[in-house]
Write a structure and sequence with these properties.
Blueprint (H helix, E strand, L loop, with lengths): L9 E3 L2 E3 L2 H8 L2 H16 L5 H14 L3 H13 L4 H8 L10 H15 L5 H10 L2 H21 L4
Antiparallel strand pairs: 1-2
Length: about 160
Amino acid sequence: MSNPGSSGRLRRNGRLRPSRAAAWMLSHSAGTVKPFIELAKAQFTALQLPARSRELGILTVAEYTETTFVAAQHNPMSQAAGVDERTRQLIRSRQLDDAELSPHDSALLRFTAEIVQHPRIADDVFDTARQFLSERELVEALQVIGYYWTFGRIFTVPA
């Protein structure tokens, strides 16, 4: 995550804060801020997608959108959801097919990365994801991926 505009870090009272660029971008559409925040809340309260799977997706989106703020925020959340440090390292190094990953994790990570990088997902990647995720989980994963892709784009716009 080398994009200097993507660091999204400000420290205030020892807490990591979103970038000024993100606040600036959101301020141009004040009417959409509340629904955007409500959609974020739904990612944590209304999904059947397991928290661990959600966090794997979020970390992968953060890596591929170069959004260090999101990665920093979700590292402890992912740990609490059961994502170990080695898995987080593999995501950061984009080793999504590594043999250390479970087939489920690899399928979900590849699915996420494919969606972030391409307008259409490859059939083999989708077929593999379908082996591990229910139809509902696939749709919910897509919603999480889409939300954090949007969030990532907001955070990587230069101030």
